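Bench notes, afternoon.
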Amino acid sequence: MTATRLFVGEAGLSTVEPRAPLPELPPLSLYIHIPWCVRKCPYCDFNSHEATPTLPEEEYVDALLEDLDNDLPAAHGRPLSSIFFGGGTPSLFSAKALGRLLEGVEQRIPFAADIEITLEANPGTFEQEKFVAYRKLGINRLSIGIQSFQQAKLQALGRIHNGDEAIRAADMARQAGFDNFNMDLMHGLPDQSLDDALGDLRQAIALKPTHLSWYQLTLEPNTVFWNQPPALPEDDTLWDIQEAGQALLAEHGYAQYEVSAYAQPGRAARHNLNYWSFGDFIGIGAGAHGKLSHPDGRIVRTWKTRLPKDYLNPAKAYQAGEKLLPLDELPFEFLMNALRLTDGVDAALYNQRTGLPLESLAQARRQAEQKGLLQVEPTRLVATPQGQLFLNDLLQYFLI
């Protein structure tokens, strides 16, 4: 890559809206998107593309570091509290490539002493030697995409692994030195019964991951499942699965701290907690999104060029667009994230993250409290159990 690569900067982001300087800048994370996977799953609407026999690792790492160089001014001297390699399937990349990338990142931005570095991986890509090497690089958390342990369900989802490989992946992660790992597990799968769903959950719990992301399959536009919908469970079955599954997770010491996230004590994902508490994150890689705050009160969302071939094209800009969040959208933007947390957030965080006075939420809070969607807690912003179930309805009160 050359230093002449085009860059879309912050031109046009000035605003006539008066903004209060932020009391302090939020923590900073880094999201790195690796867009290739072995095979595109029929339910997946992520920016992922089937890999060719030879991945352009060197060129992509060069591009990622140059992309990061463009975003460095928005770091404002903050260290990175977490890094997340998402995809696609980042574990398709060699340890050598990821090592060069991490070294390049640390040369540009200091790492917090207790930085959390997560790598997404699929069981079909597990090789013991490779994962030992990942651990030696400083990657200290894995997120393993299981989805199900049952062969019929895995085939319906288009997954490349089988149930035995999923089980072995957990053992291999531990043997490679990862004592902190998440398992992604879906429910509400095609023709899934309550017993099927709980069987998957029991198997996952038996493998003792420190964290479980347990969420319902949804049909998203621009996917195979959207155009050719499979037979999904009835609403009553979905409700039974949700209730029984949450009880089972709680029984085994997994506390729900977000809509679809459950963790053992002290093992909540710090990277995602930063998202949900309206922290900042730089996003690099094809299609990556970022959210960055500035001392003068501006909060900017960015998104990068989506297609890998365009991202690797020196004639095209890395950044595809940006948006300065208007003041009247900040209440919704903040609460859309914060109210996903089962314990909510300290109410004072609203002013710290947005620069807006907490009093500006007073009327909407009262209305949401009267409807039983927001808890009556002056020092916290937290949804009631009913509000968690009907989060979209709750958020409507904060649309200005």
